[in-house]
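Reminder to self: keep the SMILES exactly as supplied, no canonicalising. Ligand is magnesium ion.
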Amino acid sequence: MFIEIKDIKKDFGAGDNLTRALNGVSFTMNKGEMVVLLGPSGSGKSTLLNIIGGIESADAGSVEINGEKVHGMSEKQRIIYRRNHLGYVFQSYNLIPNLTVRENVEVGAYLSKDPLGVDELLGVLGLTKHKDKIPSQLSGGQQQRTSIGRAIVKNPDLLLCDEPTGALDSENSKQILELIEKVKEKYSTSVIMVTHNENIALMADRIIRLKDGKIVKDEINAQKIKAGDLVL
Ligand SMILES: Nc1ncnc2c1ncn2[C@@H]1O[C@H](COP(=O)(O)OP(=O)(O)OP(=O)(O)O)[C@@H](O)[C@H]1O
Ligand SMILES: [Mg+2]
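Structure tokens returned for the bound complex:
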């Protein structure tokens, strides 16, 4: 088993402002598996991803990855864990504003022991032409592709993607999803991807549905479809 998530709870605020973002979430996943987290806005998807990624801490419960307990780590250990094992595609792209596209992707490569080729990846992402622009000079889709490049270039064990195609049209979405699928297959990367889109979920090995901070369904995807054949 690669990942074990046990009874995660997370509240925000207090009293009248209390939000129970996660209310006892548990699941496990294997190395090389792709899990899609589906759920309406506010159901706790980003919060769960942030906790798995060691960016936010849970109030209760545990996350174990490759036998390492994320919650038991010091801040310093957590930074090293993120650097060595995780690729993170954020819902808001979090690009470094004064670095070019190529430099933003390179940041990911520097942090890795075994990075992919930066220029080759820029080609796959359709960013070669834009590689010397800074984020404010890019379209939303180009920014999103840059942030995906930064996460993938590390060749991480676990890729966490929060709405990776949220800002893209269907053609660009398909290309990005094919890229994620290719990385997963080539490197046995485990992937957790958040989406609102039922059609995108069909490319996953497993579909987990969240509602009000709880898992309401966790099922093997019996009708798995290649990213390139999705109807988006
Ligand atoms: N820092 C915070 N302070 C207060 N409440 C928060 C905070 N972060 C998240 N929440 C609340 O927790 C709940 C879950 O938020 P989360 O961002 O995980 O939802 P989501 O499923 O990712 O939604 P979306 O699809 O809109 O991105 C929401 O009700 C949200 O308002
Ligand atoms: Mg979210």
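Points to follow up:
Helices lie at 45-52, 75-85, 101-110, 118-124, 140-152, 170-187, 198-201.
The longest strand covers residues 19-29.
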